[in-house]
Amino acid sequence: MPHRIRRIDAEAACAEQGSDALAEVKLHGRLAYEGDMLRVHRDIVRCPDGHIAYREFIRHPGAVMVIPMVDEDHVLLERQFRYPLARTFVEFPAGKIEPGEAPLECAQRELLEETGYRARDWIYAGGFNNAIGYSDERIEVFVARSLTLDATRRDPGEVLELFSVRWRQLDQWVRDGRITDCKTIIGIYWIERLLGAG
Amino acid sequence: MPHRIRRIDAEAACAEQGSDALAEVKLHGRLAYEGDMLRVHRDIVRCPDGHIAYREFIRHPGAVMVIPMVDEDHVLLERQFRYPLARTFVEFPAGKIEPGEAPLECAQRELLEETGYRARDWIYAGGFNNAIGYSDERIEVFVARSLTLDATRRDPGEVLELFSVRWRQLDQWVRDGRITDCKTIIGIYWIERLLGAG
Question: Is A6 in contact with B161 (Cβ distance < 8 A)?
Answer without folding.
Answer: yes
